[in-house]
Amino acid sequence: MNLSQLPAIAVLSDNVTIVQHGEVKIVRVMHDKAVAGISLLGGHVVSYQPTGQEDLIWMSKAAIFDGEKALRGGIPVCWPWFGRIANPAHGFARSKEWELVEHRENEHGVIVELALFPSEDTLSIWPHLFDLRLVMEVGDELKVTLKVRNIDDHAWTFSGALHTYLNISEITQMQATGMGAEYIDGLQDNKVCQGGDTLELTAGIDRVYTQPEAVIKVEDKVLDRTLHITNSGHNSAVLWNPWIEVATDMADMENDGYKTMFCVESTIHAPTIDDGITLQPNETHELSTIISA
Ligand code: TA6
Predict the structure, then answer these.
(1) Average of pLDDT values for 220-234?
(2) Which of 55, 84, 123, 234 is at a distance of 20 to 30 A from 13, taking alpha carbons?
(3) C-beta of residue 77 within 8 angstroms of C-beta of residue 43
(4) pLDDT above 70 covers what percent of the chain?
(5) Catalytic residue at 265?
(6) Which domain of life is it from (predicted)?
(7) How far is the CA of 83 from the centre of ligand 1 (A)?
(8) Ligand 1 atom showing the smallest separation from residue 238 Cα
(9) Torsion angle, CA of 213/214/218/224, rounded to 10 degrees?
């Protein structure tokens, strides 16, 4: 995504500016190490481009910036649940307006922190008090951390994901490793399957890998670069590509958009809304992903 062409509406420091895209405000980071953007809608990373590299993050050319719908591409924050186990799909955090609470910078990069707090609307969907922070650390690598804190007087349970869309040259020229063997196949009625050490695609997939290695690697044979994804605080890695049939049905993805994206997600997967990670009052959990080339 070309952040440099978007009009600035506020300059916050040498490296941090707020820019406008349609109805969406984006915190733009421009540093010697990298350019990156995080949308206040959804606390959603939309770009991370280390100096001299193609963007590591894919954004749909047909993404809708109406300020209401979650953006297609980037790193959607799925919370307080992952998937379609309740409504709305993937929770409400990705379509809510977050607040910018802090930014700091030095020669190594820039750190931006956003926050999401409960509102009448979130309480009507999910009746619990929370303090949610999204910390984006931009430098030689990108680290995104979702800090989930229970500020209620009772325990509650959540699931979720950092649903990263990686930017790749051509899906059929991609090879993934490190996702582990066992997966739950969303395209086969959630059947538990065993896969191989490497994954190359000739059709769509929607899989929850339950025993991923510390680092998942995605080799882009056209660009001759390998993306490294290091997750923590997760219980699985979801790998997804919709392929042409599903992409054609999506209003916010071009028909051939699936060719240049591959999702590798840092996921807390749960079968129902009552499962996942339980936090007692004042407890915190951190879910993170580190992405580098
Ligand atoms: O993470 C994979 C997945 O849950 C798929 O099942 C697919 O539907 C995708 O996320 C996108 O979901 P969305 O609600 O953004 O259309």
Answers:
(1) 98
(2) 55
(3) yes
(4) 100
(5) yes
(6) Bacteria
(7) 7
(8) 1
(9) -130
Nearest CA to ligand 1 atom 6: 206
Which strand ranges, in their side-by-side order, compose the sheet holding 109-116? 99-106, 109-116, 130-138, 142-150, 284-292, 225-232, 215-220, 174-177, 198-199
Tokens read off for 45: 């990373």
CATH of 3-292, one of 2.30.38.10, 2.160.10.10, 2.70.98.10, 3.50.50.60: 2.70.98.10
Reference 264, options 191, 203, 207; nearest CA is 207
Q: For residue 275, count CB atoms less than 10 angstroms from its CB and return exposed for 0-12, middle for 13-18, buried for 19 or more.
A: middle
Nearest atom, ligand 1, residue 76 CA = 15
Residue of 31, 44, 90, 163 marked active site: 163
Measured from the Cβ of residue 84, the count of other Cβ atoms closer than 10 Å reads 10
Q: How far is the CA of 89 from the centre of ligand 1 (A)?
A: 8
* Cβ atoms < 10 Å from Cβ of 10: 12
pLDDT digits (tens, 9 = 90+) for 143-186: 999 999 999 999 999 999 999 999 999 999 999 999 999 999 99
The answer to whether the beta carbons of residues 226 and 217 sit under 8 Å apart is yes
Question: What letter represents residue 40's amino acid?
Answer: L
Q: Which atom of ligand 1 is nearest to the CA of 90?
A: 14
How remote is the CA of residue 78 from the centroid of ligand 1, in Å?
10
Ligand 1 surroundings by CB, under 6 angstroms: 83, 89-90, 163, 186, 206, 238, 240, 263, 265
Annotation marks residue 163 as catalytic: yes
Give the containing element (helix H, strand E) for 21. Answer: strand 16-21
151 C-alpha vs ligand 1 centroid, how far in Å? 29
DSSP 8-state symbol, 161: E
Tens-place pLDDT, residues 10-53:
999 999 999 999 999 999 999 999 999 999 999 999 999 999 99
DSSP code, position 70? P
